[in-house]
Amino acid sequence: MGQLVVRGGNPLKGSITASGAKNSITKLLVASIISDKKCIFHNVPDIGDVEVTVDLCREIGSEIHWDREQGIIEIVTKQLSTTFVPQRFSGGNRIPILMIGALLSRTREDIIVPTAGGCKIGRRSVDFHITALRALGADIEYRKMKKEGAYFTQSHDGLMGALIELPYPSVGATENAILAAVGATGKTVIRNAALEPEVIDLILFLQKMGAFISVEGDRSIIIEGTKVFYEVEHYVVMDRNEVASFAAAAVATKGRVLVKGATQEHMGHLLTALRKVGAGFNVQKEGIEFFYDQDLKGGLHIETDVHPGFMTDWQQPFAVMLTQAEGMSVIHDTVYEKRFGYVDTLVKMGADIELFTECLGSKKCRFASKDFLHNAIIKGKTPLIGRDIEVPDLRAGFAYVLAALIAEGTSQISGVPFLKRGYAHLTQKLQSLGADIEEISSDKEAAQKELASTGAKA
Q1: Is the dihedral of CA 89, 71, 249, 333 positive or negative?
Q2: Do 273 and 310 touch, CB atoms closer than 8 A?
Q3: Using omega within 30 degrees of 0 as the cis cutoff, is the peptide bond preceding 45 cis?
Q4: Kind and range of the H or E element at 412?
Q5: Exposure of 154 in the CB half-sphere (CA atoms within 13 A)
Q6: What confidence tens digit (pLDDT) does each residue in 107-151 have?
Q7: Which of 230, 193, 402, 409 is nearest to 315 (CA)?
Q8: What does the alpha-carbon distance between residue 364 and residue 356 come to, in Å, rounded to a whole number?
Q9: Around Cβ 123, how many Cβ atoms within 10 Å?
Q10: For 305, which DSSP code?
Q11: Disulfide-capable partner of 393 in 61, 109, 119, 189 (CB 3.0 to 4.6 Å)?
Q12: Do strands 436-440 and 388-390 pair parallel, antiparallel, or not at all (unpaired)?
């Protein structure tokens, strides 16, 4: 599938434009199938997860035109051609499970959706999803099918509004409940809901489409069901994870990068953490500029949390940056129990990082007293050495790219498709900032190996 070849040592300098959020546009496309009206999305990133979601929507009857160069998708689902999502969509990402809520809003036909996929970062149960949808009147049954399972769902009598109290502010469960409640009869109240910017982006889109939705200050979302919809034109919110990734990269490589489109309101905890470690940033009209300002100092204590806390998807590039900070820092991930799977490779590159099962923080943690390595102590400053790397998941992938950018020597990174799931034109963006990075296709890679072998024989 190709490799990235990275030669470290170059500071990143220049500007890039933030892409639209992966975790927003994929949900927006699913939400559009509730209506039979045309929806136009701008600022659409050219990434693998969007490709999968587009294919998924086409499978059930959506007509889609995607202008990749302009970042625009037009979608209309005049009628559903099927309510059966094939097994081939199982494991690709976590979007299929959200099809249940959207399809329940659209139809009373039987619905079959495969199990959820995505990065292997720990157990990502859909129990909260199922409990919420059942509260609205859906009949959901899990059945084993071939090697994978599927959820058989129906609501032949229609959904009814209900009170849904989530045990944890799960983003996916909140989104699924919202999508289903839009088509339910009566009022639905979701308590302890997730309020990430991507969830709010979904709500804003659904309001434009005709849904009656309001957000209360106590983490409650109120939805009144409707069947009257309108055409919509919507601009996708910027990708906070891409912004955080390039922020850490700018600082760790001792560079200066302006990320156009980045907004302060969605990056608060990240900006505070950057200042504490001695990094610099300037909030400008067109975006946020991140830069290396002085020798980085450790002593940072980060605990990931749901919004508005420090995102779990920010800790991987931040951890790499902290290997270049003088002193000891702590990261306690309270969101996923296996988010530190990338650490072993960083240690092999020279990082001094230890993992612990004990909670190293004061936040309430679901993994307390459980045997999960969900805490890291990072000791810096340590030089990193380039090496061959296999990417296991999306966010770990960028952490490895960043480590390679600051390492001495050359790194070869395989598993590029994981990166392309969530980062649009990553290689080109890094090259534009001065990184010594190139992507080698499988054919070129094979030719180079053959040439090297021939040379060795000679």
Answers
A1: negative
A2: yes
A3: no
A4: strand 410-414
A5: 5
A6: 999 999 988 644 443 344 689 999 999 999 999 999 887 667 899
A7: 402
A8: 16
A9: 8
A10: -
A11: 119
A12: unpaired
Nearest to 417 by CA among 389, 391, 444: 391
List of domains in the chain: 3-19+238-451 (3.65.10.10), 22-227 (3.65.10.10)
Distance CA 381, CA 398 (A): 20
- The mean of the pLDDT values for the chain is 92
Report how far residue 147's alpha carbon sits from residue 97's, in angstroms, rounded to the nearest whole number.
17
Edge-to-edge strand list for the sheet holding 352-356: 301-304, 327-333, 375-380, 352-356
d(CA 405, CA 415): 17
Task: Give the confidence band of 453 by pLDDT, cuts at 50, 70, 90.
Answer: very low
How many Å is the Cα radius of gyration of the chain? 23
Question: Partners of 332 in the beta sheet?
Answer: 303, 375
* CB distance 32 to 63 below 8 Å: no
Angle between the N-to-C axes of helices 48-59 and 95-106, in degrees from 0 to 180, rounded to the nearest 10: 30
Please tell me which residue in 39, 57, 119, 365 is annotated as part of the active site: 119
* Alpha-carbon torsion, ordered 10, 241, 350, 441, to 10 deg: -70
CA neighbor of 240 nearest in space, from 218, 212, 268, 220: 268
pLDDT in tens, 54-98: 999 999 999 999 999 999 999 999 999 999 998 888 765 678 999
Taking each continuous run of H as one helix and of E as one strand, the counts in the chain are: 14, 23
pTM listed for this prediction: 0.91
Find the helix or strand (DSSP H, E) in which 364 lies.
Answer: none
Q: Where are the beta strands (DSSP E) in 185-305?
A: 187-191, 212-216, 220-224, 232-235, 256-260, 280-284, 287-291, 301-304
Non-local (6+) Cβ contacts of 414 within 8 A are 1, 2, 3, 388, 389, 390, 391
Q: How far is CA 359 from CA 27, 49, 138, 315, in A?
A: 33, 33, 38, 16
Distance in angstroms (rounded) separating the CA atoms of residues 250 and 264: 17
- Answer yes or no: 119 catalytic: yes
Locus of tokens 């939805």: 223
Mean pLDDT of 353-364: 90
